[in-house]
C-alpha cells in the first residue's frame, strides 16, 4: 500500500524488512497472559492489528521468573511459554506483518510479596522505589553483585533465542520506563561504585552487554532497543538525559542493530502529560541523527504529528500505543483520515479475553 501525500503510508526498508508503511504497534502490556503464558486470544488481538508489511511489537515479556512484576504478563523462559507464542506469531505472519517481541526484566519495579518463593527483586541498587510512588508499595531490592550480572545478561540471550524459535522476526530490548536496564542507565537510581556505575560509560555497560549478547545470539539485524532517557517513571531519573540518550545512540552503532525506539519526553508511562504540546517534536533529534539505522519515535503521536515527523525526517517510523490499542484498523483509518475510536483506560488491564481487547470496532468489519 503506497499512498501518495501521506508520509506515514510510504514504504520503508528497515534493514532486511520491507515495510509498506511507517505505523508501528507500540508494545502494550495487557495482563491477559494467564500464569505468564501467552493465550490463544492474543492471536486474535495481534492479527486484528496486523497489515501486510506492517511492524508490530508484542507486549513486554519476561526473561525469567524474577523478571515479572505484574500478574498475567507473558514470559518466554519456559518451553510451555515458547510453544504458546507460536500460533500467535503464525497468525500475525499470515497477515504479512513483521513481529518483534519486547524482552523485559522489571528489576526493582515489583510490589511487596509479588515474587515467587519469597525471592528478593534485583536491581543496580539496594534502594527501592519510594513507598506510594504510582500508588504502590514497592519491594526493597538487593543489588546485583558483579558476578551475577553475566547470568542476567544470559537470561536475555536465552529469551531472545526462544523468541526466534517461537517464530518472531526479532526482539526489542526493554531499556525504558524504569525497568531493570534503565535502573542501570540512570544516575538517580544507579549508585554502584564498580564498573557498572558512576560514569556514563559504566552505567551503559549493562545495557550494551545485553545488546551484544543478544545480537551475537540471533543476529544484529533482529535486535531493537527501546529507551526513554527523558521520562521519569518509577523514580528512574537521570541528571543529564541529553547526554545519556546521545551516548547510547552512538554506542549502539557499534553493534549495527536494526532499530532504536525512543519515547518522547511528554510521556509518563501510559499517560501523556497535559501541557503545551510541542508542535514539531525536537528532543529526540540528536539521538536520531547519531543513530545510523532505523529510528522509531513514540509517545503522544496522532495522524497529523506522525505525518509531520516522517516528512521532516525526524523519525523513520512512529509507534502508536493507545490509539492502536483502541483502533485495530488504525492504518486504514489513517489512510482515509477516519475518526478514531476512543480508548477506554478502565479496560486496559482487565483479564477479559475480549472486552477492551478484541472488541474495539473496525471501520468496516473484516471478512
Ligand atoms: C495499556 C498500556 C500498556 C503498555 N505497556 C507497555 C509495554 O509493555 N512496554 C513498553 O515499552 N511500553 C508500554 N506502554 C507504553 C506505550 O508503548 C507507549 O509508549 C505509550 O502509550 C505512549 O504512546 P501513545 O501516546 O501512542 O499511547 C504501555 C502503554 C499502555 C497504554
Explain what you see:
It comes from Erythranthe guttata. Residues 13-340 form the NADH:flavin oxidoreductase/NADH oxidase N-terminal domain. Its EC number is 1.3.1.42. The protein is built from ten helices and 14 strands. The chain has helices spanning 41-48, 79-94, 149-166, 180-185, 200-218, 241-253, 285-290, 303-311, 322-326, 330-336, and strands at residues 12-14, 17-19, 23-25, 55-62, 98-104, 122-123, 142-143, 170-175, 223-227, 259-263, 267-268, 271-272, 294-298, 317-320. 29% of the residues lie in helices and 16% in strands. The chain is globular. A hairpin with a 2-residue loop joins strand 11 (267-268) and strand 12. It is α/β, with parallel strands linked by helices and 367 residues long. It has one domain: Alpha-Beta Barrel (TIM Barrel), CATH 3.20.20.70. The chain binds flavin mononucleotide (FMN). Residues 26-29, 59-60, 102, 174, 176-177, 226, 263, 267, 270, 272, 298-301, 320-323, 348 line the site of flavin mononucleotide (FMN).
Amino acid at each position: 500500500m503506497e499512498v501518495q501525500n501521506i508520509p506515514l503510508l510510504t514504504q520503508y526498508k528497515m534493514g532486511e524488512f520491507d515495510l509498506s508503511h511507517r505505523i508501528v504497534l507500540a508494545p502494550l502490556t495487557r495482563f491477559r497472559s494467564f500464569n505468564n503464558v501467552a493465550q490463544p486470544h492474543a492471536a486474535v488481538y495481534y492479527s486484528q492489528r496486523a497489515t501486510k508489511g506492517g511492524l508490530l511489537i508484542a507486549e513486554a515479556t519476561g526473561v525469567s521468573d524474577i523478571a515479572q512484576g505484574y500478574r498475567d504478563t507473558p514470559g518466554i523462559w519456559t518451553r510451555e511459554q515458547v510453544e504458546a507464542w507460536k500460533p500467535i506469531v503464525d497468525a500475525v505472519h499470515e497477515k504479512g506483518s513483521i513481529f518483534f517481541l519486547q524482552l523485559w526484566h522489571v528489576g526493582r519495579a515489583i510490589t511487596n510479596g509479588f515474587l515467587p518463593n519469597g525471592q528478593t527483586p534485583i536491581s543496580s541498587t539496594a534502594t527501592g522505589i519510594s513507598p506510594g510512588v504510582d500508588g504502590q508499595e514497592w519491594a526493597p531490592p538487593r543489588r546485583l553483585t558483579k558476578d551475577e550480572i553475566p547470568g542476567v545478561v544470559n537470561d536475555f540471550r536465552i529469551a531472545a533465542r526462544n523468541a526466534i524459535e517461537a517464530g518472531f522476526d526479532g526482539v526489542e530490548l526493554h531499556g525504558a520506563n524504569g525497568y531493570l536496564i534503565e535502573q542501570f542507565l540512570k544516575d538517580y537510581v544507579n549508585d554502584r561504585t564498580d564498573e557498572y556505575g558512576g560514569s556514563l560509560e559504566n552505567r551503559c555497560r549493562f545495557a550494551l552487554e545485553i545488546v551484544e549478547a543478544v545480537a551475537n545470539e540471533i543476529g544484529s539485524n533482529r535486535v531493537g532497543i527501546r529507551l526513554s532517557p527523558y521520562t521519569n517513571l518509577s523514580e528512574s531519573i537521570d541528571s543529564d538525559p541529553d547526554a545519556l540518550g546521545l551516548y547510547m545512540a552512538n554506542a549502539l552503532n557499534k553493534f549495527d542493530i536494526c532499530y532504536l525506539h525512543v519515547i518522547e519526553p511528554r510521556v509518563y508511562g501510559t499517560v501523556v502529560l497535559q501541557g503545551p504540546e510541542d508542535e514539531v517534536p525536537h528532543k529526540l533529534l540528536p539521538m536520531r541523527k547519531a543513530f545510523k539505522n532505523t529510528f522509531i519515535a513514540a509517545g503522544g503521536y496522532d495522524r497529523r504529528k506522525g505525518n509531520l515527523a516522517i516528512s521532516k525526517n525526524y523519525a523513520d517510523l512512529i509507534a502508536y500505543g493507545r490509539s492502536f490499542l483502541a483502533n485495530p484498523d488504525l492504518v486504514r483509518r489513517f489512510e482515509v483520515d477516519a475518526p478514531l475510536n476512543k480508548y477506554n483506560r478502565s479496560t486496559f488491564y482487565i483479564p477479559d479475553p475480549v472486552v477492551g481487547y478484541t472488541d474495539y470496532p473496525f471501520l468496516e468489519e473484516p471478512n
